[in-house]
Design goal:
six-stranded mixed β-sheet; alpha/beta; five-stranded mixed β-sheet
């Protein structure tokens, strides 16, 4: 990425719609120039667009906040694709070859194309996440079989699938916000690239993104993705349990969850804490939080076992996401996931990041997915507004008036007051003109929008029809 390129990414999270703009510095660090977010509880559910209009309004608001910080116009953005229905799906293809034939690039490309064109249960294929080959029924897989002499080849591809309707809602929300998509990425895979080491991926590792409304489990082995599933439970599910069972507000429930966490592990469950005009027992609070958290961990373990890699995750587990900050979770998880070690909690990326506004973002796991999307983006997304000279020079008559001591005109306005008024009027007019120009250009983009992210969607429906 060049120094002058500003990349913009937006993440549609279950709790917040977040956006950030960054550029890659010459020293290799990612410099975050602007960051903004708005609540999304009324429009995003389980990581997927639920209310199209509200989501579009939220995207537009985030873009406007970023533009103010950047003093630039955002022309396009990168977006992450995640949430419910996103999953990996294995496709196995086989070829019988002439005796001792040599595998060439054309054969591998042919099998890749066949996999990409294969319809799977009315799901939309976003990409092929990994591939491995076996020749002549050997147990050891080959990452690249080109050049191997064999009479039989078997290829296993991991396709990433999503429900077409959810992908269409994702794209339509940006259309309604009059914002063009530069590209879309699979959020869990982008996240893995900035929090997992190559050694962890090679030896076998489970990445757990403990989010607000969903928990995503990605399993890597031999350097490639083996399994991806999204569990429709997250840290906000715990908050809703507290809210419902204690009959308190959502804000009070969130405060209790954040403040006390898995308090049953602290030996203070006999204490009471004030809530509103009353008090509650820490034991009761602990029981509520621990019950839901155990359900989430049970689902995580089920997905890891379903991957078939449970006994060989020698790289352990990496836990991230906003929910990973739940107090004492780092004590509970190692005891629950016996046999999976080490368990590493990650709230910072492996890459170096510099925040222009260091307001506690440096160690916030909730920002990692957004940073991952920024790292993937490779196109400039902004048009920097030219710096204009806003100085208004006095006219010769005004200068003469100042020299001769005529400080006020016939209306009683001084020369300085007149200059200030004209400056304010000029700034207002230029700002209105800029907004109108942005509005017109956005309308043009809306009328002719053809983003890369929609190519797969259109192709899918053309094939169906």
């Amino acid at each position: 990425m060049d120094d002058d390129k500003i990349t913009v990414a937006i993440e549609l999270g279950s709790s917040r719609i977040s956006g950030a703009a960054a550029r890659r510095n010459p020293d290799g660090r990612l410099e975050v120039l602007a960051c903004a977010s708005v609540p999304s509880s009324g429009c995003i559910r389980h990581g997927a667009v639920y209310n199209l209009d509200r989501t579009a309004d939220g995207i537009a608001e985030v873009v406007e906040l970023l533009e103010r910080q950047l003093n630039a116009k955002i022309c396009q953005t990168f977006v992450g694709c995640g949430g419910k229905s996103l999953k990996s799906f294995p496709v196995v293809l086989e070829r019988n070859l002439d005796e001792e034939a040599v595998v060439d690039t054309a054969l591998v490309d042919e099998m890749l194309a066949e996999c990409g064109d294969m319809p799977v249960d009315n799901m939309l294929s976003l990409c092929i996440a990994s591939q491995k080959f076996r020749t002549d029924h050997k147990n050891a897989p080959e990452a690249d079989p080109v050049g191997i002499a064999c009479s039989h080849i078997e290829a296993t591809f991991q396709m990433i699938l999503i429900r077409p309707k959810l992908f269409k809602l994702l794209d339509d929300s940006f259309r309604h916000a009059s914002l063009e998509l530069a590209d879309s990425f699979i959020t869990p895979m982008a996240l893995a690239d900035i929090v997992l080491t190559d050694e962890e991926k090679q030896r076998g590792c489970a990445l757990v993104d403990y989010g607000a409304d969903t928990t995503t489990v990605s399993v890597y082995k031999g350097g490639q993705l083996e399994w991806l599933r999204v569990i429709p439970l997250g840290s906000d599910t715990i908050t809703k349990d507290i809210e419902k069972q204690l009959k308190i507000s959502h804000e009070q429930a969130e405060s209790l969850k954040v403040g006390y966490g898995l308090c049953g592990c602290s030996g203070t469950e006999d204490e009471t804490v004030p809530v509103g005009s009353g008090t509650i027992s820490l034991k009761l609070l602990g029981d509520i939080i621990e019950a839901r958290n155990e359900e989430i961990m049970t689902n995580i373990l089920h997905q890891i076992k379903a991957s078939g890699c449970h006994e060989s995750l020698f790289g352990g587990m990496v836990v991230t996401g906003g929910g990973s900050s739940l107090k004492r979770l780092n004590t509970v998880m190692p005891a629950f996931f016996k046999g999976i070690s080490p368990i590493r909690f990650c709230n910072e990326p492996l890459v170096q990041v510099k925040w222009r506004d260091s307001s506690g973002n440096e160690a916030d796991a909730a920002h990692l997915s957004l940073l991952a999307l920024l790292m993937k983006g490779d196109e400039n997304c902004c048009e920097v507004a030219p710096v204009q000279d806003m100085t208004i020079e006095p006219t010769p008559q005004q200068q003469a008036g100042m020299v001769q001591g005529s400080l006020f005109d016939d209306d009683g306005e001084s020369v300085q007051e007149k200059l200030d008024r004209e400056l304010a009027e000029r700034r207002k007019a230029e700002e209105e003109a800029r907004k109108q120009q942005m509005k017109e250009k956005r309308k043009e983009r809306t009328d002719s929008l053809m983003s890369k992210a929609m190519n797969a969607f259109h192709k899918f429906f053309d094939d169906v029809q």
